[in-house]
Amino acid sequence: MFHLVLAACLAAQPGSCESRLLPAGEAATREDCQLRAEPIARDWLARHPDLADGGGTRCVETAELPALTMQEVAEGIHLHQGAMAALSPQNRGRIANLSFVIGETVAVIDAGGSRAEGEALYAAIRQLTDRPVSHVILTHMHPDHILGAEVFSEAGATIVADARLPEAVARRAESWMISVPRQIGAANFAGTRIAAVDHKVTAPETISLGDRSLRLTPVPPAHTDNDMTVLDEETGTLFTGDLVFQGLTPSLDGSLAGWLDWIGRPPDPPPTLIVPGHGPAVEGWDAAVTPERHYLTALRDATREALRHGLALSRAIPAISLAMKPVSEGWAGFQAVTARNAATAFAELEWE
Ligand SMILES: [Zn+2]
Predict the structure, then answer these.
(1) Do 60 and 103 belong to one domain?
(2) Fewer CB within 10 A of the terminal residue: the chain, N end or C end?
(3) How far is the CA of 166 from the centre of ligand 1 (A)?
(4) What residue numbers bound the domain in which 22 lies?
């Protein structure tokens, strides 16, 4: 298989150039790829005004594409574990766990924090199989999970998300399109656009990959207000998105009460393997959620204590952070994330 690669430079910084993979130009032979390259690249650039042609196109073999490192964690399930850190130029925004499931077709679960990461995930799939990518399932709205989706849209996949996601993303998109390139570097963000959701999930449903199926379950507000879990029924692997954090401090952007409630109701039957949104895959429900349950319970208790003492928000945040010190061990980014969580929890629990 041959792949169309475009040399593209930032319109605002013409010296800063990147290679973009355009799946619409995929072909069985180099000749077929080259024949269609020019119009496909021209169309694509017209839709990505942040980039300009930086020296034309070339057609390369699958093995030449830069690809994410994947690990097969269950039969046909491949996981890329993101960096355990906040967004930075060093990690290029590649902090979320990204997975794909190979059936007769391929489903991607979370698409990465930039166009470039989505392309590297697409390349990793192509290095294992040439089956069509039928679905990209977004577990929730956060930019480190969704910003790579457009490349799969161009490859013909259906983008699937909780029905609440598009509006939640739309409210934040403008600010993310400024803040994320600032955090990871403009070149690492080149060509990134937010993909439209093609299929909105409003109730539990099953999607078919031909010989295996995935069960999608929307979750009431918890980590965010648009979380959705994905269960591979064949292996009992549950993809939780950021409903489960391992090692990276959980960030609260939905409902603390709802999140603790979700943790308190293990799925029936219990999943055998849990793939969290950040950190390693874990066998067994209790092992997967116990550290996070401790953290979120401590956050709730410390916030209630601050409210009981009538502290104003500005004094409550340091008080909550201090009270949570005993549960800080093993959580990367504890201080910064906990301060933000304290403010969010304060606003929610004020009304208890
Ligand atoms: Zn998240």
Answers:
(1) no
(2) C
(3) 15
(4) 2-64
Beta-carbon neighbours within 5 Å of ion ligand 1: 142, 242
For the chain, where are the E strands, in sequence order?
Answer: 2-10, 17-27, 51-61, 71-74, 77-80, 98-102, 106-109, 133-138, 158-162, 199-201, 205-208, 213-218, 228-232, 237-245, 273-278, 282-283
Digit-coded pLDDT (tens) for 56-86: 999 999 999 999 999 999 999 999 999 999 9
What span, in angstroms and rounded, lies between the C-alpha atoms of 55 and 49? 16
Which pair of tokens denotes residue 342?
């304290």
Interval 144-192: pLDDT, tens? 999 999 999 999 999 999 999 999 999 999 999 999 999 999 999 999 9
Task: Calculate how far, in angstroms, residue 95's C-alpha sits from the geometric centre of ligand 1.
Answer: 10
Find the 7 Cα to ligand 1 centroid distance in Å: 32
Centre of ligand 1 from the C-alpha of residue 318, in Å:
23
The 10s digit of each residue's pLDDT in 297-341 is 999 999 999 999 999 999 999 999 999 999 999 999 999 999 999
Domain end marker among 286, 312, 341 = 286
Residue after which a domain boundary falls, among 64, 88, 107: 64
Confidence of residue 352 (pLDDT cuts 50, 70, 90): confident
Return the closest-CA partner of residue 193 out of 145, 252, 150: 150
Kindly state whether residues 129 and 253 are assigned to the same domain: yes
26/135 same-domain check:
no
Q: Are 248 and 338 contained in the same domain? A: no
State in Å: Cα 141 to ligand 1 middle: 7
Shared domain for 271 and 306, answered yes or no, is no
